[in-house]
Amino acid sequence: AWVPSGQGREQTPITCNDPDAKGRSRNGYLWTYVSTRGEVLYDWHMSRNAKAAGSMLSGYRGLLQCDGYKVYAALAAKEGFQLIACMAHVRRKFYEAFDLHGEDDAAWYLVQIKALYAKERALREQSADPVVYRDHHSRPLMEAMLERLQRDQQVLDEHKRAPKTREAIRYTLRQWDALMRYLDHSQASIDNNRAEQAIRPTKLGVKNWLFVGHPEAGKRSAILYTLVQNCKNEGIDPQTYLIDVLNRLPNCGSDPQSARELQPKHWKQKQAQSGG
């Protein structure tokens, strides 16, 4: 119920000291969800399998924007939500082929993707209907890309050249239906960068604190990250918020509505109403 129709999600591995792993550390995962309204939710699991994803997505019926991880496709088929693929992940593969491996065959796709992003910037500057605008301006670029993908796949496979570009082409074609879907939904974005940006603080943090001490600590960290990040999104000072909420919690009891009112967005509204 918390997540509205249309969302982005990613996950990032974090080393965790797990007593069940015979004294060795292993990866835990901070799953990140971002709603179309910009709300962020972090969820901690010791795996990135279907069970971990299903704990949040079971019963979901909206749109889910993500990368090409196969677990999402399996859950979408089971639960009935629709996937929207991420153009940034597609671009990354062609960029690596061109910049890191010197494969000139990838250059055309980088130019075409740049043109698609230019259309999105122009859309944000206008008051046009996104679906109508994209249908007129972006769909022809996508159709031209599909034609080029199919042609290049045949040529490059035949001549056994540009292996990284071929890999990027195969990835893009597998994602094609989901890539096209952003054209038809006004609330959808061309990429999943909002979720990527929500992950960035945790990636920077890992460089400082290196690992999580216990799986249960991972769960507690996810809760704290969620509260602090949503405070930032709402323009709330996290320290002021946490001090106030921790003082109020003992009087909340088990009433869900009382706890809901302590969420950053509702807390901010209450503060404004009371002149705080």
Layout of secondary structure:
Layout: E1 7-17, E2 25-35, E3 40-45, H1 50-57, E4 63-66, H2 70-79, E5 82-85, H3 87-100, H4 107-124, H5 130-137, H6 139-159, H7 163-174, H8 176-180, H9 193-209, H10 215-234, H11 238-248, H12 256-260, H13 264-274
Parallel strand pairs: 1-4, 4-5
Antiparallel strand pairs: 1-2, 2-3
Helix pairs in contact: 1-2, 3-4, 3-7, 6-7
Secondary-structure element order, N to C = EEEHEHEHHHHHHHHHHH
Biggest sheet layout: 5 strands, mixed
Structural class: alpha/beta
Q: What is the strand content? A: 5-15%
**What is the count of DSSP helices, taking H or I runs of 4+ residues?**
13
Helix fraction by DSSP (H/I, runs of at least 4): 55-70%
Strand order across the largest sheet? 3-2-1-4-5
Radius of gyration in whole Å, from Cα? Answer: 22 Å
Describe this structure in words.
With 276 residues, this protein is of the alpha/beta class. Helices cover 58% and strands 13% of the residues. The chain is built from 13 helices and five strands. The protein has helices at residues 50-57, 70-79, 87-100, 107-124, 130-137, 139-159, 163-174, 176-180, 193-209, 215-234, 238-248, 256-260, 264-274, and strands at residues 7-17, 25-35, 40-45, 63-66, 82-85. It has a five-stranded mixed sheet, with helices on both faces. A hairpin with a 4-residue loop joins strand 2 and strand 3. Helix 6 (139-159) crosses helix 7. The protein starts with 6 loop residues before the first strand and ends with a helix.
